[in-house]
Amino acid sequence: MRHLTLALLGGALLFGCDGGDDSEPAPGEQPPPGGGDAQICVGKCDGLTTAPDQSAYTVDLAKANAVWSRGGAPVEHLADLYAVTIKLPGGQTIKAASHLFGGPVVPIPYHDQDGDAVRDAAGNVVGQGDRELARFFPPGAIGYAIKHHRPDKRVLDFGALAGGGASASALKEDMKLQDTHIELVVGVRRPLGERMVDGVITLNNPQTYQRGRFGDEVYSMVFVRPRLPAYAPAELRGAFEDNIRTMMVAFNAVSKFPGDYNGGDPLAASTPDKVREHVRQMVLAIAGEPEAQTAARAWFTKQENMIYCAELAHVSTSAGLLVPINRAGLVDSGLVDEATYTRFVDVLAAHDRGEATPLTDLNDNHLAKFVDVTAAPADLKPLPSYGDASEATRLAFRPLTMVEIVEGFLKTHIPRNDPRLGGEALAPLQAAVLQAMKPGLFEAMGMDDPLYQSMVDEARGRIESLQEDLNDPALDPARQTELEAEAADWRRRLGEAEAQLDAVRTRRQGVEQLFAAFVQTIGKQYEDYAAFRQALAPLLATARTLAGPRDDSGTGFFVPPSALHLVAQANCDGDDRCGGLIGLDYVGHGVHLSMVRLNDVPPPPPPAPVVTIYEAVPRPAADLNGDGTFDSRDDESVVLSNDGDAPADLSGWTLADRVKVRFTFPDGVVMQPGTTVGVYGGGQPVGAFNYAAGALGLNDTGDTLTLFDADGNAVDRLEWGPVAEGESVYFVGGP
């Protein structure tokens, strides 16, 4: 349900990608609303004093206060770092839980480095900076990090702003909830020294941001993860996550970061059809024929097609939900031809084999190579296909106009729709905040008379000065011609400036009337919230019409970082600000490891084997087993590799295809770290660690080979389609 809004008719608020009050209520206290110096707690007030989850981590508040000392008075509760104190010109103070999500704060430690210098607040050596993050985002998991400045921006003083004229620059960061960047979060397997570990990286626009890690201790974040709708089949949820993750890597590789990302860049992917066009161009940019590839890469360099940080989340997530990376999604839909689709799938497979591909060659984030990518199952359909007809027009996140952006600010800071917090008694405070915002909002809308009046005054002054020079009887003819041309140019500028000033004044008059109607309607107390919404509805309709996109370019639509914040709020369901295909679930607040004590510091993991099916040759073209005789069945081969740091006892392990078990390892077969074992169809394989199966039965037209341990657990799986003679099929991931 929409809470409060304001018509913004033009201009742009800026959407970047990159002392405290001494008279606060006691913890849990919630005085009634009132005027004068009344102290009012709004938002989830108990959340402001809720202790963090103590099960795994404890935040050292002394260290946190030292880091965020600019935010105001030292805090006594962790949650206070994620609340803002709003001071109104009339003396009222409102404390809003702007960055809390309906429950206790869950601190999630992060650090951008590895090694002995990576320590928690108690000095314990952790060694791996993303080790704790990997508990929340295991390999393959995806999410989003909402980078924000709330802990060091915990006071919004409208009284001070009003005294100097609340400017757009002073308000812009709070209008976007102090959210200034979105990182795409992906769980991976990555190297740490000589071994592979579970880790977490980020994908960003610009690509080099934080070198694929998370950031310093000051610029923290909130972690959220996608929540598919109830109609999404349970057995396909993993496939959609895979599809989104692949889209994230692919769009990160080909997209370009705009220079004008602070609200001036249009949201090109503003409809499902435009998202599909983005997918088409992305696939061509990666796997098209040379001419088509060049054209597609150039397409992403055009201003209207550049992608800022939160837009990367919007485009890749929407694409992952709307366009399955399978033949039906790309070829049968008419997006690309069969040959391009085949090359694209080949690129994905090569990437997972660790080979250089456009996915990495075009990305300056070198950690992107650790992200697993995959084609979608053949039967995966666009997500809306599993819902009703209304889903077909939705994107992952609903694009916002200025109306929803202002609404999000107001609803986050003064939630009038919650009767527990005062309900309709908050009406005067809403009106006061809206009125205090007016100077900055009008400046942001480009309706500040002084700017255009100064342009008129400058032009008139220049014309007057030039006329004086032209009246000089001794003026040289050549110089006279130059001055007359300059005067004509300034008269042209004067005409344009006067026209702009008249247009702004006319437009401002209409906006002033609408603004006044909003303040009057919002400031009135109604029987209940539903009655308030009914009274506000006609104004909202007018505001949406005026604030919506002005053309087909996407100008006027935005997905700022705060858009994901708004979707993650507990009260977002059913709200007009939401309405996308997915929801977002709160995971935790990122707090730098140096401020967090680990309550249970586990020892480093013991050395362990990592056995994979490294290679298979279903259709050999040479004597691979080394017995001096080529035989198309005997020389079929499978190679296992131990990439871990401990020996692997293969006694009783089995290799099975879709039909049956093809080989069982005898007792006593032990693979040392860094070694391989070969299994061949038959013959007399040469080498101490090469074995004959009798018959492997590898299918040339496509098969699945699974490695099971002695207890019957799937250790690794290798799948392939039709293969050429002599072609090897390589390791592409775990089961």
What would you say this structure looks like, in words?
With 735 residues, the chain is of the alpha+beta class. Among the domains are: 232-386, no CATH class; 611-730, Immunoglobulin-like (Sandwich). The protein is 32% helix and 16% strand. It has a 6-stranded mixed β-sheet with strand order 5-11-10-6-8-9. Strand 16 (654-656) and strand 17 form a beta hairpin. Helix 14 (449-470) packs antiparallel against helix 15. The radius of gyration is 31 Å and the shape is globular. The two termini are 43 Å apart. The relative contact order is 0.14. The model is unreliable at 1-15 and 19-54 (pLDDT under 50).
Protein traits:
735 residues; alpha+beta; Immunoglobulin-like; five-stranded mixed β-sheet; disordered N terminus
The stretches of 5 or more residues where confidence is low (pLDDT under 50) are: 1-15, 19-54
Query: Total helix count?
Result: 17
Number of strands: 23
Shape: globular
Biggest beta-sheet profile: 6 strands, mixed
Would you tell me the overall average pLDDT? Answer: 82
Side-by-side strand order of the widest sheet: 5-11-10-6-8-9
Helix content: 25-40%
What structural class should be given to the helix and strand makeup?
alpha+beta
Strand content: 15-25%
Distance between the first and last residues' Cα? 43 Å
| Rg over C-alpha atoms, rounded to the nearest angstrom | 31 Å
